[in-house]
Amino acid sequence: MERKRKEQEAALEAERKRKEQEAAEAEAEQTAVQTESFANCTELREVYPDGVDSNHPAYTSKMDRDKDNWACERSR
């Protein structure tokens, strides 16, 4: 009985550590995405040649001249 309880505690602890690790990784990834910014469209297009839409973390309204919710798109 004691052995089973210890096994359960160990499993719970392992699960807690796994969740902590996942949360830390997700936070680090989100921080990296949030900090992605570009000074101008030339810089942005080096990474995103077709520009970015308004849902993209790199989107800023100052780079959306025609206000169509798409920044730094190339004229067609």
In words, what does this structure look like?
- It comes from Bacillus infantis.
- Residues 1-34, 49-76 are annotated as: Disordered.
- This protein is mainly alpha-helical and 76 residues long.
- The protein folds into two domains: 1-35; 37-76, no CATH class.
- Helices cover 53% and strands 5% of the residues.
- It is built from two helices and two strands.
- It has helices at 2-34, 41-47, and strands at residues 52-53, 70-71.
- It has a two-stranded antiparallel ribbon with strand order 1-2.
- The N and C termini lie far apart (73 Å).
- The mean pLDDT is 89.
Explain briefly what this protein structure is.
This protein is mainly alpha-helical. It has helices spanning 2-34, 41-47, and strands at 52-53, 70-71.
The rounded distance between the terminal residues' Cα atoms is 73 Å
Helical proportion, percent range = 40-55%
In total, the number of domains comes to 2
Compute the gyration radius: what is it? 22 Å
Q: Low-confidence spans: pLDDT under 50, at least 5 residues?
A: none
